[in-house]
Design brief:
The chain has helices spanning 37-48, 74-88, 121-132, 143-147, 199-219, 237-243, 260-266, 278-289, 298-362, 370-385, 390-401, 421-429, 436-441, 458-473, and strands spanning 4-10, 13-20, 23-31, 53-58, 63-69, 94-102, 110-117, 137-142, 159-165, 173-182, 185-195, 229-233, 253-257, 408-414, 444-452, 478-486, 509-517. The chain is α+β, with helices and mostly antiparallel strands and 520 residues long. The strands form 4 sheets. A 5-stranded mixed sheet has the order 3-2-1-4-8. A 5-stranded mixed sheet has the order 11-10-9-12-13. Strands 14-15-17-16 form a 4-stranded antiparallel sheet, covered by helices on one side. A hairpin with a 7-residue loop joins strand 9 and strand 10 (173-182). The relative contact order is 0.08.
Length: 520
């Protein structure tokens, strides 16, 4: 872990420490009651020249308020909170707010924890020295606000009073902090100075201060009359043991102690660190976990903001440069692929031009006579006109079929025309002088297979077949209709005889008509 730095300020002392994987190490300690504390700090900073550090305030006079504000958002909420803090903490140098919850009744306002921190004159002098020497301060933390962050590592209780020691040196004086948390929310934090050096002098007074705190909370109705106050000692092991030797006069105070090592383990700082106070543990936890600072005063943190902006711009520039190089490489790769495709297309184009030139050089020039061209066009039109297509044949048959729903059309096929002996003889001799157009216009024969229901009598069948044949003959394109095959022998000279069986049958009665058609 890279070494980081922190500056701890209380009302009585200033401590500058370095923080690494081994924990916190004090690099500079000086009492603020000494007249030369500013010069000593400036000499230390000029000698060590820390890159950046955070400031931790553990001072008296902090004020805490729980205030409801209307449920609004954006810039309006920030302005309202800022105005609220100015009206509540008129003498505060630093203010901070945190959203706690939203009320469930009434207007359902948002409840915020508002904190105001007035700076002691000695702390203001330290800040002025840091600004004058242009130190890179990343932000300011309040120890009292940070103490609520360890509540999850403590025994569960509705209301808890945390007792911790304030770091620093002062002749004949020690300072302790009492932080009251109710229902998981920070209510107040108070620093107490106790005169004395020995345990016999200090801890009886500290127990009296705890009882005074309970009376104060009871008087301000922060604590019920019959409610017990759970006091948790977060001193080091020796101090906690000495404190528990004394008993409070009130039976409503329950004393207990929690090891700082156990808190560190629950906050994932490990058990290998030893801590002299809760403040030291919080400084290490904030630095290791990179917790967001509570305050960013412009004068003190301006240099850090400027440096961060420059570093951010530098990282963005480096990122953009890297992306540009990668895009250039990708575009170069794609361009090389596209160039290969263009070269291949150009080669194909050259090959096609050569093939075109070769075809043009070897193509035969045929001169077509206009008269011949016209004859070809006329011939094509005649072929199309006299083409026995399905649309023409079925159109003619459909006109004749109207009204003959009982007649089923089963099959339509070409009938192969038989040539006369004279035509066959002329063809064998090669003297068939029939023109092509006469062949195109020649009549065609079709075989149309019909079926009628077996329930009809022979006479009715013959009549319907005769009527349908007559309807076909009424069509101008049909020149002849004859029966080629029938299931009923209707005449003695039929082209194909088929005797009707003597027994009754349910099979349809079929006929085949030979139709001669000539398109007009």
């Amino acid at each position: 872990m890279q070494t980081k730095h922190a500056l701890y300020l209380s009302d009585v002392s200033i401590i500058f420490c370095g923080i690494d994987s081994n924990g916190a190490t004090d690099l500079f300690i000086h009492a603020l009651t000494e007249p030369d504390y500013i010069e000593a700090l400036q000499r230390f900073l000029s000698k060590h020249k820390p890159e950046s550090f955070s400031v931790f305030l553990d001072v008296m006079g902090e004020e805490f308020k729980h205030e409801p504000i209307p449920h609004i958002g954006g810039k309006d909420r920030e302005l309202l909170l800022e105005r609220k803090c100015r009206s509540l903490f008129s003498t505060a140098d630093l203010t901070w707010n945190k959203h706690l919850r939203r009320e469930k009744k009434g207007r359902k306002d948002d409840v915020y924890l508002l904190v105001g921190v007035p700076l002691p004159s000695v702390v203001e002098h330290v800040f002025d020295a840091l600004i004058e020497s242009k130190q890179n301060v990343s932000g300011i933390y309040s120890i009292s606000i940070l103490e609520q962050e360890i509540l999850a590592a403590l025994p569960s209780a509705q209301q808890t009073l945390i007792v911790s020691r304030v770091l620093g040196v002062s002749r004949g004086k020690k300072a302790y902090r009492q932080t009251f948390i109710k229902d998981g929310e920070l209510v107040m934090s108070r620093m107490t100075f106790i005169n004395g050096d020995t345990a016999e002098q200090v801890f009886p007074q500290l127990m009296n201060e705890i009882e005074r705190m309970r009376n104060f909370l009871n008087g301000t109705k922060q604590l019920g009359v019959n409610s017990n106050l759970d006091v948790v000692s977060l001193l080091n092991e020796a101090e906690s043991a000495q404190l528990l030797q004394y008993t409070a006069d009130s039976e409503k105070i329950n004393m207990s102690t929690v090891s700082l090592a156990d808190v560190a383990q629950k906050k994932r700082l490990g058990r290998h660190h030893s801590f002299s106070s809760l403040a030291e543990l919080l400084v290490l936890w904030v630095t290791v976990k990179n917790i967001k600072p509570h305050f960013h005063p412009e004068g003190l943190c301006g240099a850090h903001k400027t440096l961060n902006t420059r570093q951010w711009m530098s990282r963005c520039s480096a990122g953009l440069l890297t992306v540009s190089i990668m895009l250039a490489a990708v575009m170069g790769f794609l361009a090389s692929g596209e160039k290969a495709k263009v070269d291949a297309l150009q080669a194909d184009l050259v090959q096609l031009e050569n093939h075109k030139s070769h075809l043009a050089a070897n193509a035969r020039v045929t001169v077509v006579d206009p008269r011949t061209m016209k004859q070809v066009v006329d011939l094509s039109e005649q072929i199309n006109l006299y083409q026995y297509g399905p649309d023409k044949v079925f159109g003619i048959l459909s006109r004749a079929y109207r009204g003959f729903n009982e007649v089923s059309l089963m099959e339509l096929s070409w009938a192969k025309a038989e040539a006369s002996p004279q035509q066959n003889q002329r063809r064998r001799r090669g003297r068939d002088n029939t023109s092509f157009m006469d062949r195109v216009k020649a009549a065609r024969q079709f075989k149309l297979k019909l079926a009628l229901p077996a329930r009809l009598g022979n006479r009715e069948v013959l009549e319907k077949v005769g009527d349908f044949s007559a309807a076909l003959m009424e069509q101008p394109e049909i020149t002849a209709v004859s029966r080629e095959q029938a299931a009923i022998d209707a005449s003695a000279n039929a082209q194909m005889a088929a005797s009707l069986s003597g027994g009754a049958t349910n099979r349809p009665i079929e006929f085949t008509l030979l139709i001669t058609m000539e398109l007009l």
